[in-house]
Amino acid sequence: MPRTSIDSVTRDRARRLRADMTGHEVLLWTKLRDLRPYGANFRRQAPIGPYIADFAWLAGRLVIELDGDHHGHDDGAKDRVRDAWLESRGFEVLRFWNNELTENLDGVLDTIFQKIVEHGADPTPPAVPAVDPPRKGEGSGSRLPRRKPKG
C-alpha cells in the first residue's frame, strides 16, 4: 500500500507505538531483525490502511501480531475484523500470545521462519564473506598517539 494512503493520525500513532514498545515486542523485534539476511525485512508498528500491525513484512505480505491480556475482552471480535481486512488485501496474519513468546520462543520463531519461506524468503543462510588479514602496516585499526612536532 503506498505511503500516501496512510493518514497522518495513523502514521503519528505508529511512531508513538514504536517509541513505547512492550517487552514482548522488543524481544520479538530483535529476533525478526535477524531474518533480514534471508530477505524478510520486517517493519515494526507498521501502518497498513487504517490499522497498525505490530510487525509487517510488506513485500512478503506477512503480518505478525502479539496479543496480550487486553485482547481477550471482546472475544477477539475486533481482531477478526482487522484480520479479515488485512487478508482481503493479500496479507497473512500470524497471531501469538505474549506467553507463547515467553514460554516457547523457539517454537514461535520456527513457525515464523516456515512462513517467511512460504512467502518467498530464501531459506539458505547467506554466505559469510571471508575476512582477509590486514595488510602490512594496517594492523587492527588501533593507532599510536601522534608525536608533537619539535619546535
Automatic annotation (TrEMBL):
Transmembrane segments: none annotated. Residues 11-116 form the DUF559 domain. Keywords: Endonuclease, Hydrolase, Nuclease. SUPFAM superfamilies: Restriction endonuclease-like (SSF52980). Residues 123-132 have a biased composition (Pro residues). This is Very-short-patch-repair endonuclease. GO terms for molecular function: endonuclease activity. Residues 120-151 are annotated as: Disordered. Gene3D superfamilies: VSR Endonuclease (3.40.960.10).
